[in-house]
């Protein structure tokens, strides 16, 4: 089979780990190019890692790559995704929350024969949720607990004057729909958006977010009640260099890539 050429948008904690793995060699894939806001810093890192990879603008991705991985902040979704989708190619999106108000991108992918892939990321159980959605899901609830420092700077907290400094006990900082959670915490709870897309949608999926000084990991619990199963899944993710992101997120991207080319696919 021909090699799949991969572009990476954003060389932060996730993008760097994926770039390292691809540069070391992953059967069927090659690192074709990357994009970064600070090109000088990105080039210095690539040189230090001895990774040969041209830095280009996201608009140029279709000329270099068959698949792009969007590891950028949610505000960059349009700039990274649209050129690839227009060209009928694939995009792996980590900022799932940014997809909720952008149904036009999903329609574009449909019209061009392209594909948007949202990996499981920091959340277990998406396979079970998508299976349950083939029947009838009655309710979905997600409870997220994060170290307070991982929530600092969230737009919802700033807009509502909510402080997470100096806490000595857990504090409920948000309760509402997954759509509201994704908008108010764009760097924190893309898992809520992915859960909503897999299940009953962003307006029926309920989310709670806690700032909890007693935890040092990003913790998610999902409760699903459906006509085929009732289940609860929990995960405690070790933060990456970026406290807002779990280490498993980059590994989930790599697993999604392998599944695209694997002769044996496990999971729906």
Describe this structure in words.
It contains eleven helices and ten strands. Helix 4 runs parallel beside helix 6 (103-112) and helix 9 (178-184) packs antiparallel against helix 10. The longest helix has 15 residues, at 247-261. The two termini are 23 Å apart. The protein folds into two domains: 4-122 and 248-261, 3-Layer(aba) Sandwich (Rossmann fold), CATH 3.40.50; 126-244, 2-Layer Sandwich (Dihydrodipicolinate Reductase, domain 2). The chain has helices at residues 13-24, 39-49, 61-64, 77-86, 96-99, 103-112, 126-132, 155-159, 178-184, 190-198, 247-261; strands at residues 4-9, 29-35, 67-70, 90-93, 115-117, 137-146, 171-177, 205-211, 218-226, 230-237. The protein has a five-stranded parallel β-sheet, with helices on both faces. Strands 7-8-6-9-10 form a five-stranded mixed β-sheet. It is globular.
